[in-house]
UniProtKB/TrEMBL annotation:
Keywords: Aminoacyl-tRNA synthetase, ATP-binding, Cytoplasm, Ligase, Magnesium, Metal-binding, Nucleotide-binding, Protein biosynthesis
EC number: 6.1.1.6
Main location: cytoplasm
Protein name from the UniProt record: Lysine--tRNA ligase
Residues bound to Mg(2+) 2: 431
Limits of the Aminoacyl-transfer RNA synthetases class-II family profile domain: 196-507
Binding site for Mg(2+) 1: 424, 431
Listed Gene3D superfamilies: Bira Bifunctional Protein, Domain 2, Nucleic acid-binding proteins
Name of encoding gene: lysS
GO-annotated molecular function: ligase activity
């Protein structure tokens, strides 16, 4: 049995929190005023010699009553306290969530120090202790304290460590979520491992990572509504980028034949379980390949990320990920590739082709209760496909060959009129990534831009304008290429089974 026993849960009122802050501020003042309390409430440093995880790794096999004779200096956040007469127990938590017991006794620290400990140390404080590593009589790995200092005084009390925070608090006060919840800390580690894995996969294939502008004079590279801002220095309207595509293609024109970027995009649109106005995006372009080759690359990127996410778990070495609800999802093997028109035809029970008229598609949409804003052939096809097909996808699936109207930056299909060489990758029922055989003909690209400008004039606020600077670059010849874009937050959703607000460390909230 541990000396640490969970207290009864109690939800503090606002008045209780206010009173705790008042008392803690008085303790802060006393710490700052006390000449014998080294460094006050916020010392510039404390003499740590090791970490809580390192102590646990080295001495985790001690049995009850063992003494090591090894003196360590460690620091952590106080997450448990039980103060008795001559012996106080506490628990310090490291940033990764690992904990160790500290024992502050009259015999080791003396009467004055013990009294100060009881008076000045609160839950939530960062505390430095120095002492011998032992195993207590109940077998708890512990530090028998000979010296202690406040490393940082907490003025606000911690929430109850034994009661789960609600979702709103977790999102708005992520620091509390990280202190309290293992899943929150694990999400951060998984994301870091995923990003490192993506970069390793690209490096193994000789890609170069670059950075492109986030402030742009013309938004482009995707169909989305931009955020608008103003530059005082240039006295001009600017846009937060919706995609890095047009600048990465300039890099490809300049001879960077394998290039990628992982950075932030901004789209002034709705927020829900799969969309955030600000999000991390990966885009990559590879010369002398097409959308089939870029699909192979994307599969490797995701599968390697799954391997990285599983390090240290019972699934290490596999591409089977475990979602937050306990579901196991296999990202291994070769993924399915299906035709958008073919799969729609099969699901709708009638042949639908690029030649199917808008009137026919409108009639089908009305019959199925599918509403389409500013309908054209391409938008109707995509909305109907989502209605009929998307819920049937259980495995990771590349949906191939999209209508030309909805993909203005994509090359015409080499053998099927009316469609372009584009795929969307669906995992868990949502779009994770999109890939293309890139449009590199500047004449056709200008025609597509003009079509987009006409759509914008008719009220489509997601349509692009004519980007003359990009066209000038394209006129200097971009090699045949495949390109892809993938949302990093959505990749974490695919690996963890969580919603987008859980995969973003600090999501935007009102």
């Amino acid at each position: 049995m541990s000396e640490q026993t969970a207290p009864e849960t109690h939800v503090e009122t606002e008045a209780e929190v206010f009173e705790q802050k008042r008392v803690r501020l008085e303790k802060r003042d006393k710490l700052n005023a006390g000449a014998d309390l080294a460094g006050g409430a916020y010392p510039v440093s404390v003499p740590v010699t090791t970490t809580i995880p390192a102590v646990r790794a080295k001495f985790g096999e001690l049995v009850a009553g063992d003494e090591t004779g090894e003196i360590v200096g460690i620091a952590g956040r106080v997450v448990f306290q039980r103060n008795t007469g001559k012996l106080c127990f506490g628990s310090l938590q490291a940033g990764n969530g690992e904990r160790i017991q500290v024992m502050v006794s009259l015999a080791e620290v003396g009467e004055d120090s013990l009294a100060s400990y009881k008076e000045l140390v609160d839950l939530g404080d960062h505390l430095f202790v120095s002492g011998e590593v032992i195993s207590s009589r109940r077998g708890e790995l512990s530090i028998m304290v000979t010296e202690w200092r406040i490393a940082a005084k907490a003025i606000a009390p911690l929430p109850n460590m034994y009661t789960e925070l609600n979702e709103e608090t977790r999102v708005r006060q992520r620091y509390l979520d990280l202190i309290q919840r293992e899943q929150a800390r694990r999400n951060v580690v998984t994301r870091a491992r995923t990003m490192a894995s993506l970069r390793r996969t690209f490096a193994d294939r000789d890609f170069i990572e670059v950075e492109t502008p986030m402030l742009q004079t013309m938004h482009g590279g995707a169909s989305a509504r931009p955020f608008v801002t103003h530059s005082n220095a240039f006295d001009t309207e600017l846009y937060l980028r919706i995609a890095p595509e047009l600048f990465l293609k300039r890099a490809a024109v300049g001879g960077l034949e394998r290039v990628f970027e992982i950075n932030r995009n901004f789209r002034n649109e709705g927020a829900d379980s799969t969309h955030s106005p600000e999000f991390a995006m990966l885009e990559a372009y590879q010369a002398y390949t097409d959308y089939n080759g870029i699909a192979d690359l994307t599969q490797a990127l995701v599968q390697n990320a799954a391997l990285a996410a599983n390090v240290g778990t019972e699934r290490e070495g596999t591409q089977v990920v475990e979602w937050a609800d306990g579901t196991l999802f296999d990202l291994g093997g070769d993924w399915d590739r299906i035709s958008m028109y073919g799969s729609l035809s099969e699901a709708a029970g009638r042949e639908i082709t690029p030649e199917t008229s808008v009137e026919e598609l409108l009639a089908l949409a009305e019959q199925e209760g599918v509403e389409v804003k500013l309908p054209n052939h391409g938008k109707l096809i995509e909305e109907l496909w989502e209605h009929f097909v998307i819920d049937s996808l259980t495995r990771p699936t590349f949906v191939m060959d999209f209508p030309v109207e909805t993909s203005p930056l994509t090359r015409h299909h080499r053998s099927i009129p009316g469609v372009v060489e584009k795929w969307d990758l669906y995992i868990r029922g949502f779009e994770l990534a999109t890939g293309y055989s890139e449009l590199v003909d500047p004449v056709v690209q200008r025609e597509r831009f003009v079509q987009q400008a006409a759509e914008a004039a008719r009220g489509d606020d997601e349509a692009m304008g004519v980007d003359e600077e990009f066209l000038r670059a394209l006129e200097h010849a971009m090699p045949p290429s495949g390109g892809m874009g993938m949302g990093m937050d959505r990749l974490l959703m695919a690996l963890t089974g969580l919603g987008i607000r859980e995969t973003i460390l600090f999501p935007l909230v009102k």
